[in-house]
Write a structure and sequence with these properties.
The chain is about 25% helix and about 30% strand. By secondary structure, the protein is of the alpha+beta class. Strands 5-6-7-8-4-9-10-11-12 form a nine-stranded antiparallel beta sheet, covered by helices on one side. Strands 1-2-3 form a three-stranded antiparallel beta sheet, with no helix packed on it. Strand 11 and strand 12 form a beta hairpin. About 20% of the residues are buried.
Length: about 300
């Protein structure tokens, strides 16, 4: 039971009986499946078997740190008490001509992408590499390694696991109920008929980047938001190199705590040309993003567009 709802679980665990690993750990595997209203909503797998080990090096992960006023200085966000008008409770209506430097909270880049092939749209490895490159090129602090999953997810692994369960149970008992295994196989059969796609997120101390792909439509949606300002061209260049882009439809928002956002729209085509209102505005690496995306008041524009 959770929040008044009943969830069904199917769990299986076994120890291989092999020699102990270093430290006295017996090789074993566990698999759990979670169902809500007849739909599988989650699964987990744990193993101490050497053949299931990964090469993830936790020592190379950056230690998460909360952004300081100094780290967000390029955005103009100021630490300290709120403006006097807010602190005193006086009414304050901020419009486009009343934008304050201490009101600015960050840049949000939103992209709707059309591709002319399906290349990499269902590749979790590509999306993982994209996020790692974004972390480096945008100078963001990764709180965790990128989280990436493919839908339908883990079909081959679950199918193989069902085979192992069925084989082992048949070997141990003459009259055994294999209904849970048959249920999982039917679930896999239905899911394999569905379209696939990838969802990924990179969680930053400064905020986040996320992507969702639909390979059947040659489309993906991407966004990146940060209190530490970044150059749009750096993010867009990575999107162009990881996928076969036909068009990037881009929205750049300078967001404020109390004021309405400043919104700019532009496109990037297959030739890496930036297009504004149907007119070329220059190549991606040379276009004047200061003019395309007017900066937030009081900021050093070189921090965003150099």
């Amino acid at each position: 039971m959770k929040n008044g709802e009943t969830m069904k679980t199917l769990a299986y665990a076994y120890a291989s009986g092999a020699a102990s690993l270093a430290g006295g750990v017996t090789p074993s595997r566990t698999q759990g499946f979670y169902f809500w209203k007849g739909v599988m909503v989650g699964h987990e797998f744990a193993s101490s078997c050497p053949e299931d080990s990964t090469d993830f090096d936790a020592s190379k992960a950056q230690q998460p740190t909360r952004p300081t006023a100094a780290s967000c200085i390029s955005t103009g966000r100021r630490a300290g008490p709120p403006p006097a008008s807010v602190a005193s409770g006086l009414p304050h209506e901020a419009g486009m001509d009343d934008l304050r430097k201490d009101d600015f909270v960050g840049r949000h880049l939103i992209v709707d992408a059309s591709t002319y092939t399906r290349r990499n749209l269902s590749s979790t490895d590509t999306v993982f590499a994209l996020f790692e490159a974004l972390n480096r090129h945008l100078d963001m602090t990764a709180v965790l390694p990128p989280i990436v999953c493919r839908y339908p997810f883990a079909n081959d692994e679950i199918s193989s696991f069902c085979d192992d369960i069925e084989t082992e149970l048949k070997a141990k008992a003459v009259d055994v109920n294999l209904a849970p295994v048959r249920l999982m196989r039917e679930f896999l059969r239905r899911r394999q008929l569905e379209e696939s796609g990838v969802t990924g997120v990179s969680i930053w101390a400064e905020s986040h980047a996320a992507i969702h792909t639909w390979d059947e439509d040659n489309y993906y949606a991407f966004d990146a938001f940060s209190c530490r300002d970044f150059r749009p061209r750096d993010a867009l260049r990575l999107l162009l190199t990881h996928f076969d882009i036909e068009t990037l439809n881009c929205v750049n928002l300078f967001r404020y705590q109390r004021s309405i956002p400043r919104v700019s729209n532009f496109q990037v085509n297959a030739n890496w040309e930036v297009v504004v209102d149907g007119r070329p505005a220059g190549e991606l690496d040379t276009a004047d993003f200061d003019a395309i995306c007017p900066g937030a008041p009081g900021l050093d524009s070189r921090a965003a567009t150099a």
